[in-house]
Predict the structure.
Amino acid sequence: MKDHLLSAADLSRDDAILVLDTSAEMAQLTEGRSVKKLPTLRGRAVVNLFFEDSTRTRTSFELAAKRLSADVVNFSAKGSSVSKGESLKDTALTLEAMGADCVVVRHWASGAPHRLAYSGWIRSSVVNAGDGTHEHPTQAILDAYTLRKHLGSVDGRRITIVGDVLHSRVARSNVLLLATLGAEVTLVAPPTLLPVGVEHWPCQTSYDLDSVLVKADAVMMLRVQRERMNAAFFPSAREYSRRYGLDARRFALLPDDAVVLHPGPMNRGMEITAEVADSDRSVIVEQVTNGVYVRMAVLYLLLAGGRE
Amino acid sequence: MSWLIRGARVLGGEPTDLLLDDERIADVGRRISSRGATVTDADGLLALPGLVDLHTHLREPGREDAETVETGTQAAALGGFTAVHAMANTDPVADTAGVVEQVWRLGREAGYADVRPVGAVTMDLAGERLAELGAMTDSAATVRVFSDDGRCVSDAVLMRRALEYVKAFDGVIAQHAQEPRLTEGAQMNEGELAGRLGLRGWPSVAEEAIVARDVLLAAHVQSRLHVCHVSTRGSVEIIRLAKERGFPVTAEVTPHHLALTEDLAATYDPRYKVNPPLRRADDVAALRVGLADGTIDAVATDHAPHPVEDKDCEWDAAAFGMLGLETALSVVQETMVDTGLLDWAGVADRMSARPARIGRCDGSHGRPLAAGESANLVLVDPAASRVIDSRELASLSRNTPYEGMTLPGRVVATFLRGRPTVLDGKLA
Amino acid sequence: MSTPAQHERLAAEFGGRQVLDERDIARALTRIAHEIVERNKGADDLVVLGIPTRGVPLAHRFAACIADAEGVSVPAGSLDVTMYRDDLRLRPARALEHTDIPAGGVDGRVVVLVDDVLFSGRTIRAALTAVEDVGRPRAVRLAVLVDRGHRELPIRADHVGKNLPTSMRESVKVMLQEVDGRDAVVIAEEQP
Ligand SMILES: [Zn+2]
């Protein structure tokens, strides 16, 4: 593995399988144990640097780091120097001076983790916890982990990703990682919400959800913000959910063993109905649990060893 | 003081002597006797007319932390320029006779290059009301070029009126062609790479739609339009068509759009963030051909200094723009001369004669190197090469996209009205 | 007994000499299995945990051996100690081996840790901490096929198949059918 995890494209097929296998061991080592803490990262400092609110991702990384006995510092844009306009660079220099071994960064700007990793401001490992509309690689790994648990293997499976691909870092990372793992990915969205150049991505695209669902082994619904209709990406929330939402009728089109994923937080009634979200083939809650194992695996693989 | 330049190859021709005396070129020929002049040996060097930049951001008044008229014109002289057109987007905006005269006077006092202020088209660049274009023309700065550069005059009626109005004093509207709604929040060229990097796309059509509209407007009102920093193949094609039809249109291209492509954005390093954005290799090829065949009239630097903190940050948060004055000639040599697309006479035409004509530099710039002309010239060593180190630049800012790159050619000396501003590659 | 031809092949592969063959290993394992039961006064409450890689098949062999002799089934599993090692930073992070704790857990039981070679003792130190995180056994014992000496920690084995005095320059290689396709123990000079 590289020193940083910035993009799902940083993972070769072997790397990706290593992370998934390691995640499975992490689950094994903590599930049902009286002591859920492992001593592996004792004395290492992990900084959660969040320029954008995300309690769920921050908590997941925090728990993962603490289960590995790392010291965890939360550095958030609210209530810190960041909100007073301290630059990314100055923040990075501060973290370097404090001796951070790993910076987990969530940022509103695409590429900010890349800047942290390669501008020479800090020496620590950088983990991208979601940057702008770019990528969210640990989310993709936890999705792949969840899929592997339910489907056995991801290789050759048909995975459908539905919704606001244009603004989705989850979609970008998932397409890259799932393609690396040999899945056949199909993106479904109105043309306005597919990025220019998507035809060069390692996946198929479709505007017709029904025809894709009947062959899907899994379907991942992306969050769609209602406000997008104000920028004319679609006419109304109602029309969007009628054409691209996962409701009971569409759910019935899926093969019997197909599963439903959602990276959260959900817009119930928009991209997914409550009925589908709460069905027994929805693995949405499990994704959250798996997120901790996957992040433990990533932190272990980046931090436990010596740098090459 | 007079200077005798020995053995310079004028426009790349046979070695010739040039005698500069009392602001003018006194004599051009073989074995001119020194007659007490200071002799400088120009063996192996090219002589070109002093370069004229149609598009320079000197940042003064307002952002003296990024550049001043003095440092900007020092950079210009080191790049071989003897005249620069200073863009209007200063603070306060150059939308009154007072501001343009101030900038013009600062240029005179510094003495490194003639500063030709560009006047704003609209008050405060707001795109709502015309600035007092006539007053700026009649001022000591004798403004002829008007531009809201940095912003597009997107209102079609306002653009039409501006074009019509400047006919009274032979002015030209230099349009920064950027359809604002199509580029809200845009960060880089729209395409597969932008989609992958998660950076908001800046489509070619946002430029081409304005270029198309404006060439038609210029033809309709028969007034001069100049298109700033053309960056796409489509724009080149529209301008070519407009010229074939005899529309009164001129255009410029920046050195960086001749040399660099969008791929550099994959580093997320904002030194490559510029407006208009770097495009694809196909666009670069079209721009080079367009410059070679004269569709594009001029190379203009769009020299845009920014302090370190505006570039040492996230891509989205960074300012648009690149330094250009001190590297322009080298980049043109690499992309146009060394590729065989343009000879040195062509370079002199695109970097001196035509920009001077577009800017109406009243006979003192962009003239041939002949006896009786103003002694504005540059001596260049085309065989030299150098590694660009931003710390060595005269500009106050460091945002060159060529950091660490090896570029051909070196400006050895620049003369402004017979007086050296640069000697031995250093400020005189 | 291995044939002379096998001897030569092993010597060629490892540049070393074979010190235990298949029969020696089988004898040693049977003896240890009996010792374990004897020491424990029966097979009740035993859990045998092998340390990956080669401790795991050994643990299963012990369990089978005890089951044969005593007619009771002994739970066997594996315990990866990578996450507990004190030398992680000396190398790039390595892949984890599988941990498989038998369903009954370890609380109140006697855990027998099994490894192929006992050397510095650091692996066993890590294993003791790892066991602690799994639960609270009544006792922990250690069984190894080979003890080659050179301890760096105050740790000793309860059951040893063979003591092999070695020099630090030598390496001891245990090969097992399940992993390597044959049973043998070979000593070779470490490559300089
Ligand atoms: Zn501009």
